[in-house]
Amino acid sequence: MTYSYGPWHEGPDPLAPPADLRDALDEIGQDVMAGASPRSALEELLRRGTASTPGLDELTRRLWQRRAEIQRRHRLDGTLREVQRLLADALRSEREALAADPGEEARFREAQLDLLPTGTAAAVAELGEYEWTSPQAAEDYQRIRQLLGRELLDSRFQGMKEALAGTTGQDVERVQAMLADLNALLSAHARGFADIEERFAEFMRRHGEFFPENPSSIDELIDVLAARAAAAQRMLNSMTPEQRAELAELSQQAFGDPRLAQQLSRLDEQLRGLRPGEDWTSAGRFRGEDPLGLGEGAQAMADLAELDALAEQLSQSYPGARLEDIDIEALRRQLGEESGVDAQRLAQLERELRAQGMFERAQDGSLRLSPKALRRLAETALKDVVRSLRGRTGERDTSSAGAAGEPSGSSRPWRFGDTQPWDVPRTVRNAVLRTASGGSGGAVRLDVADVEVAETEHRARAAVALCVDTSWSMVQEGRWLPMKRTALALRQLIATRFRNDALELITFGRYAAPVELAELVGMEGTWEQGTNAQHALLLAARHLRRHPDAQPVVLLVTDGEPTAHLESDGTAVFDYPPAPRTLAKTLSEVDRLAKLGAALTVFRLGEDPRLTEFVELLARRAGGRVVAPDLDGLGAAVVGDYLRSRGPFSGGSW
């Protein structure tokens, strides 16, 4: 046995690696977290393409470039120009032959030529009965008739011009017989004859050589013929009225037999009736210098129609659109093999994203990211955070008060560098005892030696409330996406390394609400006045109380001072600048968190002086701290603070 090897031409390379769904999903996730719906994010990815595959926009650009090239390069009067050239050659040869003849007959014929009409079609018709003196002139005149016949047939039957290159009288009769039988077959079909399939089979047996498409039914045959005839009609529509009139008159001279034009006219009429949905009326503008014959012009119009259909398929703008709808073979014909492969890769990517469960239907019927997709996005977000943590960049300034950990009930003397809170009763007792033993007359003064700090211990699990600001300013200032990526990273860390920890995600704008990760990822920014940190902290406290055995951790991400609070009836009141009652209610919730022993860290986004002053106050009241990261460092700052708050990490290497 022998083997031969060559390039693969049957679509995407079978040995190529599968589509990289992770990169594609990351791009979709970025768009979803920025506020796009999963469906629109998927569509945008397919439009944009990937690093290795051009998207639908690039394929569409190639289509329009190809379309413009056809119209800019060509013109449609090629057949008329060729007929004019052949007529001029024939008349020149004939006049030269007559000039060499001194007889009266020659002078008479010269007079006949002088009286020919100025129009090309009329002159060709007038010369139909002329007896040529020059053999070359006679040959040129016959070439006009042959050319017209082949071009007319080629405009209706693709490839006919080449098939009839050496036309004989017998060939013309075969064509005439085929056209007569074809018109009879279409007439029988239009009248609903019961034996139409038998008639079609007999027609194809006799005339199948004229139809390289090899249609399998009469409907397929009509589809092929109607598409070509409609393209020929659009070509005629694109010509000037004078050009159309010239061609109509010249068609009577095709093969020197007017029956051909009559049969084609009848064929066009029947096809219009059978396929009225074809485009029979539009036109195109051709402004190039390369002349096209009738057959080539019809093919150009067919190419334009195919390009328009492909553009609609690539737009994916109709209901139920899928990339599998794209006609790959047509794309290859118009743009080449590479574009066909690119479209197949995009279709494969879409198919794999759907097949591997990256999307699911919500209860309202909308498309959303599946838990599997969210896990992948979270993995990527956490990896980015880990890289930032290793470099520890993004945290510009901090202020600290108190320390993380749960009081154990015991205390110890203060040592330089300790950040634990003072054990005030024992510190005062030590001062009293020292003063009494020293005989100072009742005055109590504190000394460094008196100070004791409360010992803390890190519990085995933590209750974590991540409160994220979802007011409009977060969207407006470009903080929306970093906020969501931060939540993803923290959720992934807890789910994979600290599974016993209890995380609750709380969003707050005018109102606050606990949300699932999928809700937060898919949340769209809406214009709403109000930053209700009080409500968020209230919900955070409720979450901590549900887990009394866990170390309480509250992480608050915001870019604005509180401008809303809840009244006793549950309604939110908005005031800007912040009303004293709003500030008081917010601080009251901070005090409640402090009583629960919660470690509160406020992540301040932005440089507003009023915000800076307020969050510093929160930190002092709660014994917590303020972190002011830049946007790129927000995820690392939040995750790092969570790790610091819950104690040494013992879950393995990063």
Question: Which short descriptors sum up this protein?
Answer:
654 residues; disordered C terminus; 7-stranded mixed β-sheet; alpha/beta; 15 strands; rod-shaped
Structural features, described:
The protein has 25 helices and 15 strands. The chain has 654 residues and is an alpha/beta fold. It is 55% helix and 11% strand. Helix 9 runs antiparallel to helix 10 (196-207) and helix 17 crosses helix 25 (634-646).
Reconstruct the topology from this structure:
Elements: H1 21-33, H2 38-48, H3 56-73, E1 74-75, H4 78-99, H5 104-114, H6 120-126, H7 135-156, H8 160-163, H9 169-190, H10 196-207, H11 218-237, H12 241-250, H13 259-274, E2 290-291, H14 294-315, H15 328-335, H16 337-355, E3 359-361, E4 367-369, H17 371-391, E5 395-400, E6 406-413, H18 424-438, E7 452-457, E8 462-469, H19 472-476, H20 480-497, E9 502-508, E10 512-515, H21 517-522, H22 533-545, E11 551-558, E12 564-566, E13 572-574, H23 580-595, E14 599-604, H24 609-622, E15 625-629, H25 634-646
